[in-house]
Fold:
Amino acid sequence: MTAVANDTDTSRPRAAARPRILANGMSRIRYEVKTYFRSPDAVFFTFLFPVIMLGIFTSAFSSSGDIVPARGEAGVSVGAYYLPGLVAAGLLLSGVQNLAIEIAGEKSNGTLKRLGGTPLSPVSYFIGKIGQVFVTGTLQVALLLVVARVVFGIALPTEPEVWLRFAWVFVLGITTSALLGIALSALPRSGRSASAVILPVVLVLQFISGVYLQFYLLPDWMQNIASVFPLKWMAQGMRSVFLPDSFAKLEVHDSWELGWIALVLLGWLVVGLVLSRITFRWIRKDG
Structure:
């Protein structure tokens, strides 16, 4: 009887701590979002960048005519074709690029060391960062779609089932990007070198994953490399939302492969979660 009572008593502090961890995480989300929008470089290079790129692509290449999946079939404008890739890129920028650089900077300037000396749980810290990415990513996509529709006249889907597909691709993509961003923050040796380490990785992925170049025109070896990483699947999922079904024949296996999109993104989500747990430290081990 005594042993049972002791077990129960031991579990009570842990159970009582869970609401506090969640409450601290919610509080961190508000703080992280405010901090994000007070940083001009983060707002420009992660929040507004896809909107700017959509304007550039639409203005520069609209005179070349519509992009068609096959001769004799209806096509879409250049802006409409590039919109899905830029939506996916926005998720990558909000999660991977933003968090990897931001957390590396917090390690370098002593912010994480100070937080490590407080009762703040790493789980609450993660909730704050992931919540920030969800809020800013949602606002970013909403702005991008409004600009696409209002400014450039790009037609958006009207079918509820298509928007449901958008929702799960968005949630998987943004969560995976956020966790990978936390994991990759361990790579830079300092906050000063973070941009030099992270930006080339993000930029190369965008070029080989069908964001800035039409994916079906890339050589097979480049498509195969891109298929290893999540951005290609995020972009493919968004193309299945914003492009007509006739464009599925331009994909590698002539279909949207929605099942594979879900499996690959779930796989990378687990990888990001494990790596985040293994690599995250309030203070770097090397000092």
